[in-house]
Amino acid sequence: MNNKLQGFNVLLMGAAGSGKTYSIGTLCDTGLEVFYLALENGLESLLGYYRDNGKEVPPNLHWARIKPPATSFMDMAEVAGKINSLSFEALCKMTDPKRNKYSTMIDIFKLLNNFKDDRTGQEFGDVSTWGNDKVLVIDALTGINEAALNLVAGGKPVKNMTDWGIAQSQIINLITKLCDDCPCHFVLLSHIERETDQVLGGSKIMIATLGKALAPKIPVKFSDVILASRNGNKWVWDTANPTADTKTRNLTISNNIAPDFRLIYDKWKSRGNI
After folding, report:
1. For the chain, how long is the longest CA-to-CA vector?
2. pLDDT reading at 2 higher than 70
3. Element housing 36 (H / E)
4. Which element (helix H / strand E) includes 261?
5. How far is it, in rounded angstroms, from Cα 37 to Cα 29?
6. Does 197 score more than 80 pLDDT?
7. Sign of dihedral through CA atoms 200, 206, 211, 216?
8. Surface-to-core class of residue 156, CB atoms within 10 Å of its CB (0-12 exposed, 13-18 middle, 19+ buried)
């Protein structure tokens, strides 16, 4: 394969239960080596793709799970006590003395520097050195959101605008690195929320991230932005929804696309004469 050709970057967004994680199984069917970073409890859904189709989990699927730090009930009680006793102004000025335990964002960076497969223990090195025979999947953006904000503010009950600004920079820097500086394919899964369209009125489907200002900046980094949804008893992909900021370079414009990454991969190969 021509490793000089930049891989596709896909942002797959949708509500819970829209088949986002399940569809990752079709990535392995392309023959690509798939590296799945689970920041949520999505691995069971992905493995369900093979169970439901009577297939063995293939050797080209690798995964790693990064869990957020556990919070004890006593930690919750301490925070609740401060909320109950301090003024809002005092809460805003608080810092979290236990902030260093919120290292999930650091753990993400370290894993991307050397991806270690939980399944086999094998190490695959720096993601930015991978070619287009590999694909990184992050499930999901919500986990990155929480990790970035906790990195800055820890468990303090009120996050201020400075906290949010620093966290947003961490998120956009990570996504920019993965989209612009990594030759491998990249798939980011994201939940959605409805926001008011300040220009046209009505509501708009947007990715769920930290703040309205950040949400429009992330999709522009991707070659394909797809809305996953359920249509009756089947899952579909949508690139034509007028209330969502979708776009496509490797799919047709339609609201009834089969949720299959082989469609994207085949189009990408044809565009690169592979």
Report:
1. 66
2. no
3. strand 33-38
4. helix 261-271
5. 18
6. no
7. negative
8. buried
Query: Residues of 222-255 as b/e, b for ≥16 C-beta within 10 angstroms?
Result: bbbbbbbbeeeeebbbbbeeeebbbbbebbeeee
228: amino acid identity, one letter = A
pLDDT at 83 over 90: yes
Q: Considering the entire predicted model, what is its pTM?
A: 0.94
Domains and CATH numbers, the chain: 9-271 (3.40.50)
Structure tokens at 148: 């970035």
Q: Is 162 left (phi over 0), alpha (psi -120 to 50) or beta?
A: alpha
d(CA 112, CA 129): 10
Q: Please give the pLDDT value at position 271.
A: 87
Of 24, 14, 12, 247, nearest in space to 135 by CA: 24
Whose CA is closest to 171, among 151, 195, 194, 186? 151
Interatomic CA distance for residues 7 and 131, integer angstroms: 8
Whole-number Å distance between alpha carbons of 91 and 113: 36
pLDDT value for 200:
60
Strands 192-196 and 224-231: unpaired
| pLDDT of amino acid 273 | 74
